[in-house]
Design goal:
9 strands, mainly beta, about 100 residues, 1 helix, three-stranded parallel β-sheet, single chain, flat
Length: about 100
């Protein structure tokens, strides 16, 4: 349980970053492997927000090269939850989200 809470806190802290302009012009490989574990993204409490990207690009994304994005889960789970009024939890898995 302590590991899950530590992952949650770390994820929430990292989710506060600003959107960036992402340009991929060469070979790019993004891989996330979850084995015998879990990834949790949660917004808990009134007005809370949580954002998480696994093997993803968020922002103004331009793909001009060879881009591979992969998220695999074996004996595990990926959870995205918004709990409470006016909460928002965003999660992107192996994707490009933006313009």
């Amino acid at each position: 349980m302590k590991k899950v809470i530590a992952i949650l806190v770390a994820g929430l802290a990292l989710g506060l970053g600003a959107q960036a302009e992402v340009k991929i012009g060469g070979k790019n490989k993004q891989t996330v492997t979850v084995k015998n574990g879990a990834v949790l993204n949660a917004a808990i409490g009134a007005g809370a927000q949580a954002k998480q990207n696994l093997a993803s690009n968020k922002g103004n994304v331009t793909i001009g090269g060879d881009n591979t994005q992969d998220v695999s889960v074996k004996n595990g789970a990926v959870l995205n939850a918004a709990i409470g009024p006016m909460t928002k939890a965003e999660q992107n898995l192996a994707s490009n989200d933006g313009k």
